[in-house]
Design goal:
The structure holds 2 protein chains of 2 kinds. By secondary structure, chain A is of the alpha/beta class. In chain A, 27% of the residues lie in helices and 29% in strands. In chain A, a hairpin with a 2-residue loop joins strand 8 and strand 9. Chain B is globular. Chains A and B meet through helix 2, helix 3, helix 4, strand 7 and strand 9 of A and helix 3, helix 4, strand 7, strand 9 and strand 12 of B. Strand 13 of chain A pairs antiparallel with strand 9 of chain B, so a sheet runs across the interface.
Chain lengths: 324, 258
């Protein structure tokens, strides 16, 4: 067999945005390669729906996946790869892509291109392109063994529009394995962050140390973000200073984000922060210092005091929302 | 407790990188090589565990950059001894090849814990630690912000994006650390002197029961280039209110993102 296999992640039976994103890209690549797309789903989810997004077959691994278990996930993906025998395996570059994918790759004895932002077909094979060195360089990554595994930076590709079509569902029973229990969950603490998952957010409003305090962040950044349905984010300096939790930190040592719109308020643009957001489509910089490096990356820049500009901007956004 | 810490020699974060001729890598001349940022936290955790529980903290690295110097840096920060995989055949290998070399070296030492940074600051693969765990047949825990030993068990908090999970299990284990896990200690001059006489063992692939073929890469990198420059940005004019109005218009009509 051959083709492209996509891990379609879901949360409680609802497919994640990233699942559709990867299927959309896989469909495009498969058309060029003259091959087919299949999906792997872990646990209960409406698998046939994926047919509308180009999956001809869906390998549904049947087991209890209600708790995240690396060893179980690797076993499940391994079973799906055995069944589908794909040329290419695509996995979203979120936790599962960073935690489970490389272990699977070692088990398969193949290779992985991590955190790709582009995929293309060259010489009959899929080639990934990806940022490295905190985004200072890009490089192509090619995998010479099967399956070629690529993890993709979320939001790199557009959401596809569904077409007519169902999918054949192939069920894979995953036998219990006592070794999965080598790591057990003690406690799960869901993040206090109520806004959209940062790595998948379409819009982000981020603040830096210039916010001066937790109150500054809560009264300027969060309401501005709320006014356009954006997630709030912060620089390392701001989260270290306690203005936000580390869950909201964007940068090389935090979340890597890739939104349509990134509003940076009071952020100077240190290389470590840029590493986390430089692939954003539109970047707006609001900063008092006209020489701040962030302006070199900004699509639109406002030189001014964020405490003055942000509330005005919020008012404009709110007026726009009201006008519909 | 025998703790291993894997470190990678990477260019200092402030380095201005140049693409080497042929575009298959970077120009290495004049680079200041340092221990990859995330591994500084891993090293601190490893050294603290050993100080608290006794035993040994061993550093592992596969030659790249200035590995020998960075291993000495790690010894000055509290490592007891170091193992360097030193073999020309590791140069062109991939993450799985590196993992095979590290796993083989670790196996010879019989460790309880292996700590690694969650990613290296150069290729940012986030692959090697999970691969080492797979090759050793140990579980691994990724993106750990807190780690402790409780009897013969480990307890780790992993950051999963949107949730933090506290997990436990029996040793041995491979752990990848967030840089927030610990603040690296300051190195003291006497420690630098002492580090010079600590054992740094170089091993080639044959000594690890490996060969160039065994670590032949499946993943290869090419066409390095700086990212395409963003189109020149525009600074808006007028007072704050006028700028806010104009920005919203541009985001709506020109960029079409709201």
């Amino acid at each position: 067999m051959s083709g492209i296999l996509v891990l379609a992640e879901h949360e409680g039976g609802k497919f994640r945005k990233g699942a559709y994103e990867l299927l959309g890209k896989a469909k495009e690549l498969a058309a060029t390669l003259g091959t087919s797309v299949s999906a792997v789903v872990l646990g209960d989810a409406p698998c046939t729906e994926l047919g509308a997004f180009g999956a001809a077959k869906v390998y549904q691994v049947e087991a209890d996946f209600s708790q995240y278990n690396t060893l179980q996930i690797v076993r499940a993906l391994h079973a799906a790869v055995q069944a589908a025998d794909p040329d290419v395996l695509l996995i979203s570059g979120n936790y599962i892509g960073k935690d489970a994918a490389p272990r699977l790759v070692a088990r398969l004895g193949t290779g992985q291109g991590s955190d790709c932002t582009e995929l293309r077909v060259e010489g009959g094979a899929v080639v990934g392109r990806r940022p490295m060195y905190a985004g200072k360089l890009l490089a192509d990554v090619k995998i010479s063994k099967r399956p070629a595994v690529f993890t993709l930076r979320p939001n790199s590709f557009p959401q596809p529009t569904p077409a007519a079509g169902g999918a054949e569902v192939v069920k894979i029973a995953l036998a219990a394995d006592a070794s999965d229990g080598r790591v057990t969950l003690v406690e799960r603490i869901t993040s206090q962050v109520k806004t959209a998952n940062l790595t998948e957010a379409e819009r982000i409003v981020a603040g830096g140390r210039a916010l001066k305090s937790l109150e500054g962040f809560d009264t300027v950044i969060r309401p501005l973000a709320a006014s356009i349905g954006a997630a709030a984010g912060a620089t390392r300096a701001a989260s270290d200073a306690g203005y936000t939790s580390h869950d909201e930190q964007i940068g090389q040592t935090g979340k890597i984000v890739n939104p349509q719109l990134y509003i940076a308020a009071g952020i100077s643009g240190a290389i470590q922060h840029l590493a986390g957001m430089r692939t954003s489509k539109v970047i707006v910089a609001i900063n008092k210092d006209p020489d701040a490096p962030i302006f070199e990356f900004a699509t639109y820049g406002i030189v001014g005091d964020l405490f003055e500009v942000c509330p005005l901007l919020q008012k404009e956004f709110e007026a726009l929302a009201k006008a519909g | 407790m025998k703790v291993g810490v894997c470190i990678k020699s990477t260019p200092d974060a402030d380095t201005r990188l140049k693409v080497a001729a042929g575009a298959t890598g970077i120009e290495t001349a004049g680079i200041k090589w340092v221990i990859s940022d995330y591994e500084k936290g891993a090293l601190e955790v490893g050294v603290s565990l050993k100080e608290k529980l006794g035993g040994e903290c061993v550093l592992y690295s596969v030659g790249s950059g200035d590995t020998e110097k960075n291993l000495r840096d790690g010894l000055a920060l509290g490592g007891d001894r170091a193992v360097m995989v030193d073999d020309a055949a590791t140069k062109g290998t991939d993450a799985l090849g590196i993992a095979k070399a590290l796993a083989a070296a670790i196996k010879l030492d019989g460790l309880d814990i292996v700590l690694c940074g969650r990613q290296a600051t150069d290729d940012e693969n986030s692959q090697v630690p999970a691969m080492v765990a797979e090759l050793l047949g140990w579980p691994h825990i990724s993106f750990v912000g807190a780690f402790a030993i409780d009897g013969t068990d480990f307890v780790a908090s992993r950051n999963m994006g949107g949730a933090t999970e506290k997990v436990r299990g029996a040793l041995p284990v491979v752990v990848t650390t967030e840089d927030t896990i610990a603040t690296p200690r300051y190195v003291k001059l006497p420690e630098i002197m002492k580090a010079k006489s600590k054992k740094l063992e170089k091993k080639n692939l044959a000594a690890l029961g490996l060969s160039a073929e065994a670590i032949a890469p499946a993943a290869t990198f090419s066409a390095y280039s700086p990212p395409p420059s963003r189109p020149a940005g525009r600074k808006l004019a007028g007072d704050a209110a006028a700028q806010a109005k104009e920005l919203v218009r541009l985001l709506r009509e020109e960029a079409k993102v709201i």
